Amino acid sequence: MKRTLVALTTVLALAACDGEPSQPPLLLPDGSVEPEPEPEPEQQMEPEPDSEPEPAPDPEPDPEPAEPFEMPEFPGMVVAVDLNPDPDIVEVELIAGGNTLEIGGMRVPVRVYDNVLPGPLIQAKVGDEVIVRFQNKLSEPTTIHWHGLRVSDEMDGNPRIVDPVQASETFEYRFVVPEAGSFWYHPHVRANEQIEQGLYGPLVVHDPADPPVDAERYFVIDDILLDNNGRPPAYLASHPEVMHGRHGNVLLANGQVPPMAIETAEGRVERWRLVNTANARTFTLALSGARFKVIGTDGGRIAEPYEAQVLRMAVGERFDLEVTFDEPGDAVVEALVPTLNDAGDVVTARIPMYEATIAGTGEAPRAIEWPAVEVPERAVDREEEMTFNAFNGPAGVRWVINGLDDPQEPIYTFDEGETVRFSIRNMQGQEHPFHLHGQWFRVLSHPDPYPVPGLKDSVLVPGNATVEIEAYFDNPGRWMAHCHILEHAELGMMSEIVVRPAE
Fold it and tell me: Domain map of the chain by residue range?
């Protein structure tokens, strides 16, 4: 249901009034009239000596019109076409449907957006209105969740709030993007199946104040489980999948079997954006052959960028990297994947995901100066504890938050503007990537050695461990809070938090 706000204008007509009458003459005691006072003689002004008149000040020059922001290209990525000529509106069409694509030499049935894997990249700048005219050509209902974007809950793709888009039906998503960052989109109906089959795509919100780079790239990292005929096995049909989520046997780099080849050159500085869209796999990535500096995470750029040779990416997490090519050669992003060798031992395989060939130019790279990022200090209003656990029930294993299996009532209610410190305790050995819709949080303490800076919407909670976060509930509405191992979410690890609007 659309709600249209109509502004009413009231026109007021003002009538001019006549002036006050002059004061009447004063009668004296003898009945005569007080004589009018003699007018004072005019004061004679001495003539001023001749002088040049002061020149009029030069008019202020008109301000230079701001250069319109130009969306960058993303090599190797299909970019959604903006259909709206307004520079502050991005309007695109998006169609979900079935297809068959070649993956690793096999013809694989997929469900994708606009017949491409991953779906087309949608990009806007901060403050733009984004309109997505969505058409569902699947044989089942679906929604689109804009992962990481702080939009209204009615546009968040939550099937508890807005009915899913039925087969052959359409829906218009409309929202304003309030902050810059690397985001992605995906369904929230039977997500363990629909995302696994290819329904996901990248989304970028640009900050026009960011300095230019030589190239922007978006790397979408995934895995998929296929049998020998290129078909997906049954879902939630194995105990390992129920316990640990669906881990694929084929890795994907931007929808294809890796490595994905990249051409670049010595002296260039690029911005690489990475997202983990797998159902369950936490990716550990090794970076080599260039200088890699982390400049952003889920919530956009961070206050203190840092150089990194290894990244750990839980499901749903994003990283922005400044990549500097100091010399010719090869730069590689490798996935460190536990596998079994011929002897049956668990070993770590290094699988190249992205390989950049760096042509020699003799040029030295320039330094990039990123604008400062403010880190606001906020007092904590409440402290809460959230627990992750599991139990065996009549229907098998169920995953729970705070002891509740897919609760329909909110597990917490907060007021808009509240800052809440959470202790998130994992009572089982399986890890859980926690995702909070519509809000940001900061990680205060984490048991792993990998940094988790900046504003976040997703964080990995390791097995039998506790993670401390500070959440900022600034966006009123009803918001999902769940494990992003999609099989765990389907099996009960899904909850809702309500943020009451300020009066």
Answer: 89-359, 382-500
Question: Pairing between strand 346-359 and 412-415?
Answer: unpaired
Over residues 136-145, the pLDDT tens digits come to 999 999 999 9
CATH 2.60.40.420 at 89-359, yes or no: yes
Band of residue 3 on the pLDDT scale cut at 50, 70, 90: very low
* Pairing mode, strands 260-265 and 269-276: unpaired
pTM of the model: 0.86
> CA 298, CA 316: separation in Å to the nearest integer?
9
Topology classification of domain 382-500: Immunoglobulin-like (2.60.40)
Pick the closest to residue 219 from 257, 274, 278 (CA basis). Answer: 274
pLDDT digits (tens, 9 = 90+) for 149-167: 999 999 999 999 999 999 9
* 333 vs 187: CA distance, rounded Å: 28
- Give, for 241, the enclosing helix (H) or strand (E): helix 239-244
Question: CB–CB of 358/290 below 8 Å?
Answer: yes
Of the candidates 422, 434, 205, the residue with the CA atom closest to the CA atom of residue 315: 434
Cα within 13 Å of Cα(163), Cβ side: 7
